[in-house]
Design a protein that fits this description.
Elements lengths: L11 H37 L11 H14 L10 E6 L2 E15 L2 E14 L2
Antiparallel strand pairs: 1-2, 2-3
Length: about 120
């Protein structure tokens, strides 16, 4: 038995809810992607330290300079240099980068992203 007036598809309210949800997902994605790209560049900068000549005998100052140049080359923006910890311990040169980014989405809604990178090489 077929009804001539049977409903097919979504109602306009259903479409409005779907569009609102999709818009919110796109908004969050577009606001967060630049920080994830920066984080990827930070990881690449640390990975490239291994390729530097004589890195195993470099000082803390040299490593800091290599990192700073890598950040400039990769155009890493909005990064606090205080979040970089470079130190020598147990015969290793170590770099720890740990930071958070807070992105305002709408009204009183923020997204907090936390990132962490570690790198080390023997100084012997």
């Amino acid at each position: 038995m077929k009804f001539a007036n049977s409903q097919r598809g979504m109602t306009s309210a259903g479409w409005m809810m779907t569009l609102a949800l999709a818009g919110m997902v796109l908004l969050i994605t577009f606001k967060m992607v630049p920080y994830y790209l920066d984080d990827s560049a930070i990881g690449s900068t640390l990975d490239s330290l291994t390729d530097k000549p004589a890195i195993d005998s470099a000082s803390v100052r040299d490593v800091r300079r290599y990192i700073s140049k890598g950040f400039q080359t990769n155009m890493i923006r909005d990064f606090d240099r205080e979040d970089i910890e470079i130190y020598e311990e147990d015969g290793f040169m170590k770099v720890d980068i740990e930071y958070e980014k807070r992105v305002h989405i709408v009204s009183n809604v923020d997204v907090v992203m936390s990132f962490k990178h570690n790198w080390q090489i023997s100084n012997q």
